[in-house]
C-alpha cells in the first residue's frame, strides 16, 4: 500500500521533519557521490551486529565478489574481505545507520512515509519532543535488529526503524485520521480512503509476519524486519505516554469527498 496523504491539517511548520529529510538527503547524496566507494560509507557508518559480538580490534570477514581473468575469460569469484572499521564508536552506529539508504527506492519510500506522517506527529508533540522521538525510536529499532541478528555481518542501514516509530506514535495520537491510499494490484492501482489506524495496523502485521518468518525459516532477505517492529512499538509506547485527545480537526469526517476534490 502506498499512502498519498492524510486528512489531518498541520497547525505548525514541521521544521524538524524538514531537517531530518534534508539530512537524510545529504547523506544519500554522499553515498551517490562515493559511487563504488559507497559500500565503505555504509560499512563505516552502518550498524553491523557482528561488531558487538566480537572483541574490539578483531577482524570481521564478510562475503565479497571479485572479477578475475582466467583462460576462459573474466569470471566472478566468491571470496571474503575484511569489514571496514567504523569511524564512530560502535554504540553510535545504532544512530548513524538511520541516515543511510540502500538505493533510490529505499530512500524515496522512507522519505515519503516520513513526509506523510511526520509533520502531524511533530505538530502534536512539539519540535524538541519529535526530534527525541525520532532519534530514540531509531536507536530502539537498531537494537531490536541487533538482538535478533546478533552475529550478522550485514550492515544495517535506513531510516525505516525511526520512521516506524513515527508511524507508531501517529497510530496512537490520531485514532480517527484517514489516509488516501494507492493499492498496487499489478493490472490496476485503485485509490481508496482507509482509516489511518487500519493502514498502519496492516503495515505492522506485514512486518511482524515477515520478521517471524525470517527468524523461524532462517530467511536472509536484507530487510531489517525487527527494526521496523521495534521502532513501531517504541513509537506507540511514546504516543501512549504522551496521551491523545479525542478531538478531531474539522476537515476530518466520515466522507472522502474532500479527498476527491483534491485529486
CATH-defined fold name: Rhomboid-like fold
Q: Just name the CATH architecture.
A: Up-down Bundle
Helix content: 40-55%
Query: How far apart lie the N and C ends?
Result: 18 Å
Strand content: 5-15%
Instruction: Please describe the biggest sheet, giving its number of strands, its sense, and whether it closes into a barrel.
Output: 3 strands, antiparallel
Which overall shape is indicated by the principal axes computed on the Cα atoms?
A: globular
Number of domains: 1
- By CATH reckoning, the class would read Mainly Alpha
> What is the mean predicted local confidence, pLDDT?
83
> What structural category characterises the helix and strand content?
alpha+beta
Q: How is the largest sheet built, in terms of strand order?
A: 1-4-5
Notable characteristics:
single chain; 263 residues; alpha+beta; Rhomboid-like fold; three-stranded antiparallel β-sheet; 10 helices
Amino acid at each position: 500500500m502506498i499512502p498519498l496523504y492524510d486528512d489531518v491539517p498541520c497547525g505548525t511548520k514541521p521544521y524538524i521533519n524538514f531537517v531530518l529529510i534534508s539530512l537524510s538527503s545529504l547523506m544519500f547524496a554522499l553515498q551517490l557521490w562515493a559511487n563504488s566507494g559507497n559500500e565503505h560509507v555504509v560499512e563505516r557508518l552502518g550498524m553491523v551486529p557482528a561488531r558487538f559480538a566480537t572483541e574490539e580490534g578483531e577482524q570481521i570477514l564478510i562475503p565479497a565478489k571479485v572479477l578475475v581473468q582466467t583462460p576462459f575469460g573474466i569470471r566472478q569469484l566468491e571470496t571474503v574481505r575484511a569489514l571496514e572499521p567504523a569511524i564512530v564508536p560502535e554504540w553510535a552506529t545504532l544512530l548513524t545507520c538511520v541516515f543511510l539508504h540502500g538505493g533510490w527506492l529505499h530512500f524515496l519510500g522512507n522519505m515519503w512515509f516520513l513526509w506523510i506522517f511526520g509533520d502531524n506527529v511533530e505538530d502534536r508533540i512539539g519540535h524538541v519532543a519529535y526530534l527525541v522521538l525520532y532519534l530514540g525510536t531509531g536507536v530502539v529499532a537498531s537494537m531490536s535488529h541487533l538482538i535478533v541478528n546478533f552475529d550478522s555481518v550485514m550492515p544495517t542501514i535506513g531510516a525505516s526503524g525511526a520512521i516506524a516509530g513515527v508511524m507508531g506514535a501517529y497510530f496512537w495520537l490520531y485514532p480517527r485520521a484517514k489516509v488516501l491510499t494507492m493499492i498496487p494490484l499489478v493490472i490496476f492501482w485503485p485509490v481508496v480512503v482507509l482509516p489511518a489506524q487500519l493502514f498502519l495496523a496492516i503495515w505492522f502485521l506485514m512486518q511482524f509476519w515477515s520478521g517471524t518468518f525470517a527468524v523461524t525459516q532462517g530467511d536472509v532477505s536484507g530487510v531489517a524486519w525487527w527494526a521496523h517492529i521495534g521502532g513501531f512499538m517504541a513509537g506507540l509506547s511514546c504516543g501512549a505516554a504522551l496521551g491523545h485527545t479525542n478531538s478531531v480537526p474539522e476537515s476530518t469526517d466520515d466522507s472522502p469527498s474532500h479527498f476527491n476534490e483534491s485529486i
